[in-house]
Specification:
Mean pLDDT: 81
Structural class: mainly alpha
Protein name: Thiamine transport system permease protein ThiP
Helix content: over 70%
Subcellular location: Cell inner membrane; Cell membrane
Distance between the termini: 27 Å
Number of helices: 22
Subunit structure: The complex is composed of two ATP-binding proteins (ThiQ), two transmembrane proteins (ThiP) and a solute-binding protein (ThiB).
Low-confidence stretches: 269-276
Membrane topology: Multi-pass membrane protein
Number of strands: 0
Shape: globular
Order of helices and strands: HHHHHHHHHHHHHHHHHHHHHH
Organism: Mesorhizobium waimense
Length: 536
């Protein structure tokens, strides 16, 4: 293969993308460091029982959420794996993919509609044995709603990698369900268990919207929510700095553990075609597996159905006519479009730079720049959006009106946070196209925009559309950055939804949740269809 030229424009594009990421993350750290240096005494006094209580609750709720999500997912995944011809199996797997696309605030509203004081299950739960939806119980239910389907799909992917000859041999030996689980399925699941559990733990420890809407006060507050409260309500920058550095330390440790365990940090599961099975399940096992699948299906579908029912019960016509709703919708769409364009551009730049640097290197050791292009987007996993927002909030308040720069911050942070997903969608297609066309492009002197449009575009069109749709959905449903920078003049749909919930206008909130949820689900379904078409 002809190596890339030393002046390859793809390397320049990658350097620009890395500089943009470094500016965003570095600016946040600069704001935190400058604020901490300005008020060292305040930062020191921030280490009090409140901080320890918040840190302890953050770890406790994440650990409980992980346990309640991963353990049932093991059995649900095994049940689905044991019955590849289960009625509606494909539909169930598609339904299990939807929570990844559903904005957290929409899911929270659906959970409130089911388990709240005025919810559908209020009479069944009772007030004596049910502590209420606000607090730890609501946080756990919401986290399990999001992470049980994710863990199930990841475990099912693991079970799909078990070689067919093992099942054939088990059938020839007359192996039953229990020994098959112990000797065939459990070794594969056990190897993947630490990575999947670590991924779920990271998602729960960095959960912001769920805890903000369902936390229920100081007794159920995580570090990210405490950062938000310290800046927007108490305006205690010293406490915010201390909480932010503690949050960074916790997420850094978790991400390092995930990297060692080889977890799928993008949170995506590309389910393969189920291999041919040679063991048939008995009547008792079939009934038990059907019960497990049915309960999981009801648990996942319940909040979505409640959101749909509550939204349809709202006065949608009146909401559509409100100037605030139309303005929030327009703002959300524009910011999401810009965020998706930026996410795709930065991701493609890093992908192209990594490939060009690999061709320059040949068989030699990887350079620091190549390593940065390969892992630069993954670094954002260590710094949650609320932490980046907090750093820039503290930095910008010194020089300008922080609320005036809300659109810029929302676009920039959401774009960078969507990059790991975009890279996952685009990189395989670009590497394959480079393998086919690199020599020809070098011989003909085709490079830059000419190469991208004439040579690479046909192969990248579908994966780029997939990445764009997914990045746009993530930006539309995000509440982390806009919660800090939002104001009456700059409101997105999630911000307006939160405001309506806070003012107890639940019917309006339900209508807005239905609108937001349907748009995000449509975008992710489009992304999933495009992705499946590309893989086919």
């Amino acid at each position: 293969m002809v190596p890339a030229r030393s002046t390859d424009s793809r390397v320049t594009a990658g350097i620009v993308a890395l500089a943009a990421i470094a500016l965003l993350i570095g600016g946040a750290f600069a704001g935190l460091i400058l604020e901490g240096a300005r008020d060292l005494s305040g930062a020191a006094s921030a280490f009090d029982p409140y901080l320890l209580r918040v840190a302890r609750f953050t770890l406790w709720q994440a650990a409980l959420s992980t346990l309640l999500s991963v353990v049932p997912a093991l059995f649900v995944a095994r049940a689905l794996s044991r019955h590849p011809r289960f009625p509606g199996r494909g539909l169930i797997l598609q339904l299990f993919a939807l929570p990844l696309a559903l904005p957290a605030i929409v899911a929270a509203l659906g959970i409130l509609a089911l388990y709240g004081n005025a919810g559908y299950f209020a009479g069944m739960l009772g007030s004596e044995n049910w502590p209420g939806i606000y607090g730890l119980s609501g946080i756990l239910i919401a986290h399990v709603f999001f992470n049980l389907p994710l863990a199930t799909r990841l475990f099912l992917e693991v079970l799909g990698t078990v070689p067919a000859n093992q099942w054939r041999l088990a059938s020839q030996l007359g192996m039953g369900a229990k020994p098959a689980f112990r000797l065939i399925e459990w070794p594969a699941l056990r190897a993947a268990l630490p990575g999947i559990a670590g991924l779920v733990f990271m998602l729960c420890i960095t959960s912001f919207t769920i805890v903000l809407t369902l936390g229920g006060g100081p007794a159920a507050t995580t570090l990210e929510v405490a950062i938000y409260q310290a800046l927007r309500f108490d305006f205690d920058p010293a406490r915010a700095v201390t909480l932010t550095f503690l949050q960074i330390a916790l997420t850094f440790v978790v991400v390092l553990a995930l990297m060692r365990l080889g977890a799928n940090t993008a949170g995506d599961a590309n389910l393969p075609v189920a291999p041919r099975r040679y063991l048939s399940a008995g009547t008792a096992e079939t009934a038990l597996n059907a019960t497990l699948i049915g309960l999981a299906l009801l648990f996942v579908a319940g909040p979505m159905a409640a959101t749909l029912a509550a939204g349809l019960g709202a006065d949608l016509g009146r909401l559509a006519g409100e100037a605030a709703v139309r303005q929030a919708t327009l703002t959300s769409v524009v910011l999401a479009l810009l965020s998706a364009v930026l996410a795709v551009a930065l991701s493609l730049s890093l992908i192209m730079a990594r490939r060009a640097l690999a061709l320059m290197r040949g068989a030699g050791p990887r350079t620091l720049l190549e390593h940065a292009a390969d892992t630069g987007a993954g670094f954002v996993l260590v710094v949650p959006p609320i932490v980046v927002g907090a750093g820039w909030f503290l930095l910008l308040r010194r020089v300008s009106d922080v609320f005036a720069v809300a659109p810029v911050m929302v676009v920039a942070v959401n774009a960078v946070m969507a990059m790991p997903f975009a890279i996952r969608a685009v990189r395989p297609a670009y590497d394959a196209a480079s393998e086919r066309h690199e020599r020809l492009c070098a011989q003909l002197g085709i490079s830059g925009w000419s190469r991208l449009i004439r040579v690479d575009w046909p192969s990248l069109r579908r994966p780029l559309a997939t990445a764009f749709a997914f990045a746009m959905a993530l930006s539309l449903g995000d509440l982390g950055v806009i919660a800090l920078f939002g104001s009456d003049s700059v409101q997105t749909l999630p911000y307006l939804l939160l405001a309506r919930m806070g003012s107890y206008r639940t019917a309006d909130a339900a209508g807005l949740a239905l609108l937001l949820g349907m748009v995000c689900l449509a975008l992710v379904l489009v992304a999933d269809r495009l992705g499946r078409g590309e893989r086919a």
